[in-house]
């Protein structure tokens, strides 16, 4: 292995040590830690460390074809220590600002969606409902008015015909029967309720 490859390997492993420190801080920021053992957290931890190992090995594979030497581990430890000593406060502040910015953007998008899509759609639906109710009410009023115009003269004509034919006396005699039928129907309705 040439000296330049060894230098690239050292620098990349120092960078990967810093990356692992940042990844650990990010993972701890987003993971929910519990005081007792939980399988889900344990599985997440195992998956996290497997992913970090794969990323480190991929970088090592790109720089020196995957040759693992003692100085590779030293470079990883040095990179992690450099991150802990110098970069950690800066990265944590940057991470918190990124999280706050992402949350603000999300809330802004939700607010925009509410005001640009939901409110106009609900306003249009309420307007359409009001218009439909106005049309139904208007049509009902017109139909009832037309029925009254037709039924009032027909009623008068029917009364005249009943008087002329003498059937009005039979209708008046049968009114108590109709009243009893109405009472019976009302009592049946009350029993059902």
TrEMBL record:
Keywords attached to this entry: Membrane, Transmembrane, Transmembrane helix
Keyword Translocase appears in the UniProt entry: no
Sequence intervals crossing the membrane: 6-27, 39-62, 68-86, 98-117, 123-147
InterPro entries, alphabetized: YabQ (IPR019074)
Superkingdom assignment: Bacteria
Keyword Cell inner membrane part of the UniProt annotation: no
Protein name, entry field: Spore cortex biosynthesis protein YabQ
Organism: Halalkalibacter oceani
